[in-house]
């Protein structure tokens, strides 16, 4: 499989773009003319630079407003093309993208356009160049790939083919099925872009909001399956116009692009076998069965205060690592690790981020399969030295600076707790009824959110929910839920646009994105709240106004509201299904724990309560 990306997709100057594109393992590039002109190097030097990076220049684009013009504009358009042909020869690429015209003087007429392309095809053929005609979604006369194909068919020219672009087809809600009728060798190039469904002008939407396959709402897999069915075996390229990407880290955007393309093509060939595309094989998306542990990095002082907080949540220091300064705290099926070991990943993480979650352990169906898929997606693996009596637990680097470990039953990794930990003798309390981790909330800059969701959705069998805006007194936080089909993994990603929001100041305070809260599940939040109260847990105070509001909103009895208010429990209800939650006070610079009780069919996270929680946290933090 030949992969490519258009230089316009990435920030930086052309030299920087080529370097990161090569580093992200793409085979080639589309040179976007503006990038080339702005950079100021000669076509020859640019061509050499690409080849020095091991990149093939697979396309030069775009050549605009060429076809259907009256004289003298028509002759001028041909002259313009010849100059670009010179440039392509010097640069060392043989394919030019011609996008359908929006020239005010352009006349329609399918045969006139075919005639123009045929004549230019003759001129291109003399130089061994080829032309790919693309229907822009907003083209004046040609804005549908079916019409573009009819024109290409009528040129009946070996040097003229079609370029199909998922955005232009799917963005106009045109079914990609008709692509299946195009001979594969007449498709000269394939461009892919996804986009979120937003109601706005097509051109504006296209130029600013495209994103990587899987990051938006278009069915790129369906489109690409149609292309694959034709026998097309040329480059598969990303052409992403996105304001955020242009301001983002070129390295990360290029990596995201490669990752999205690999995952997409894996999806495609699972539905539409296409051996001619030679898509690298990888295991299917990993099935997450649950959260096995959450690990905090800290020092001795931090361990004391974190341990004290966990104690007031009913946790016990239940076991100690056989070789390391690693304590296991547990309750129900929840395992919290407090790592104070020097010269460890955790220690380095603590040095940079302070006391925080440095590692999440996921229970998966197949740990080695998960690692193999991660490697195929170019996710960095994190092998660690294995001490005496220790198991080799596979791990990867997460998007932020943390780790994710994988534990499965299949290869005996779930023995780790018995093998590597010695129980600490217990007495007294037996917990407050917390049974498992309900969800983990990670905060990040809004601009990094797509990178995070792409990471999870390409590696794991999880779904994204629509982004919800959470109002913080200091700005908006965008919240995106990622969950597995059986809800054994629930994550909320909170993207902060302003450093003044609670999520924003949390990440600003610790150099990068991080776990901001962990929610534990209980079967009965009132019993748990009683028990918590007895052992000295301090819940986040919620104002009385809130209880007046929910009493009115849900028609709750005064007695229920009094009970809820007594323990600072927040309440939500959907279709008669209840969700109850309470929070700890903030720990350190804004981390907190949450306790939830959810009815079976309640599938949310109490989003309507988030502004009140945020305001309550803010009162304590300022
Ligand atoms: Mg395009
Ligand atoms: Mg929550």
Structural class: alpha/beta
The coarse silhouette is elongated
Calculate Rg over CA atoms: 28 Å
CATH class of the largest domain: Alpha Beta
Q: Assign the CATH topology of the largest domain.
A: TIM Barrel
Q: Kindly report the average pLDDT value.
A: 95
CATH superfamily of the largest domain: Divalent-metal-dependent TIM barrel enzymes
Number of domains: 3
Known CATH architecture of the largest domain: Alpha-Beta Barrel
Distance between the amino and carboxyl termini: 55 Å
Quick structural overview:
Helix 19 (544-554) packs antiparallel against helix 20 (558-566).
Structure description:
- The protein is of the alpha/beta class and 622 residues long.
- The chain has 3 domains: 3-277, TIM Barrel (Alpha-Beta Barrel), CATH 3.20.20; 288-423, 2,3-Dihydroxybiphenyl 1,2-Dioxygenase, domain 1 (Roll); 434-621, 2,3-Dihydroxybiphenyl 1,2-Dioxygenase, domain 1, CATH 3.10.180.
- 36% of the residues lie in helices and 25% in strands.
- Strands 17, 18, 19, 20, 21, 22, 23, 24 and 25 form a 9-stranded mixed β-sheet that branches. Strands 1-2-3-4-5-6-7-8 form an 8-stranded parallel β-barrel, surrounded by 8 helices.
- Strand 4 (95-99), helix 5 (110-126) and strand 5 form a beta-alpha-beta unit.
- The two termini are 55 Å apart.
- The model has no long low-confidence stretch (mean pLDDT 95).
- Bound molecules: magnesium ion (MG) (2 copies).
- One magnesium ion binds next to loops.
- One magnesium ion binds at residues 439, 441, 517, 519, 594, 605.
